[in-house]
Design brief:
32% of the residues lie in helices and 27% in strands. It has a six-stranded mixed β-sheet, with helices on both faces. Strands 2-1-4-5 form a four-stranded antiparallel β-sheet. Strands 11-12 form a two-stranded antiparallel ribbon. Helix 7 links the parallel strand 7 and strand 8. Helix 5 packs across helix 6. The chain is globular, with a radius of gyration of 18 Å.
Length: 260
């Protein structure tokens, strides 16, 4: 398989923080059109990997290709949804303005958004059920509503690849269901979605591809091949409990937020 056939190709990625490795020699190939979870315990380097792919963190070694080219050449084809907790939600702006920011890559920072950009932003808000909040200040939204706004901003970008850091964190069950339905729509449209995810129980239901990591890559590939009890024990140090799913597959029985 050539580089051009991968949506993302990470080779020999190593990153350190205060002289301690947070990623160590990670290789990862993500095929186009998959819905992939990045799974691992706290401190495993999941967010760091996403940020290295995006060029937000400079690794000490390794390279990243996006659709066969350096990320800087494909930046406009990649959308990013950061962790909700990393955002200053008190910034004085409204929902529609935030979503319009997703159009800046195509528009150019020197141009003011017009009707086309506003229409694209409103359509994205409609997709996530937030159109009625378009003129609400972002500080007045609930956590689930804020997450939907960030998803709408990514949708407005109309990218090929979506990188999401804990998109289900802190949302209610209704919002979680709406988000996974949206991610499946993106996959059905041929988009690639990579999401940092912490709930092992929902991995087989929500995703078709998975990366298991704990600073190093433990395994990656189709969920039904690599999301195994053995690989999960290697990832979490043997502290994960398991149960047998109705279809005979093995499913994790704990929420890994409690796993250090």
């Amino acid at each position: 398989m050539t580089d051009q056939q991968f949506a993302i190709d990470v080779a020999d990625m190593t990153a350190v923080y205060h002289e301690q490795p947070v990623l160590w020699d990670v290789d990862l190939q993500v095929p186009a059109g998959v819905l992939m979870a990045i799974v691992g315990p706290n401190g495993a380097g999941k967010t760091t990997l996403i940020k290295c792919i995006l060029g937000l963190i400079k690794p000490v070694a390794g390279q990243v290709l996006v659709q066969g080219k350096p990320y800087k050449d494909r930046r406009d084809r990649v959308a990013y949804v950061p962790q909700r907790g990393s955002v200053d939600w008190d910034f004085p702006t409204n929902v529609l303005d935030v979503v319009e920011m997703g159009r800046y890559g195509a528009l150019g920072w020197w141009k003011r958004p017009g009707k086309r950009e506003r229409d694209a932003a409103m359509h994205a808000l409609e997709k996530v059920g937030m159109a009625e909040f378009a003129h609400r200040q972002i500080s007045q939204l609930s956590g689930g509503q804020q997450q939907r706004v960030f998803l709408a901003r990514a949708l407005a970008q109309d990218a090929d690849i979506y990188l999401m850091d804990e998109p289900f964190q802190g949302v209610d069950a209704v919002t979680e269901r709406a988000i996974i339905d949206l991610l499946r729509e993106l996959r059905a449209a041929g988009k690639t979605v990579v999401a940092v995810h912490h709930d092992l129980q929902t991995v087989p239901e929500y995703f078709d591809w998975v990366l298991l990591m704990n600073i190093r890559k433990i395994a990656s590939g189709p969920v039904d091949e690599v999301f195994t009890e053995e690989n999960l024990r290697l990832t979490y140090g043997g502290v994960v409990a398991f149960m047998q799913a109705p279809n005979g597959s093995t499913a994790a029985a704990v929420d890994t937020e409690s796993v250090a």
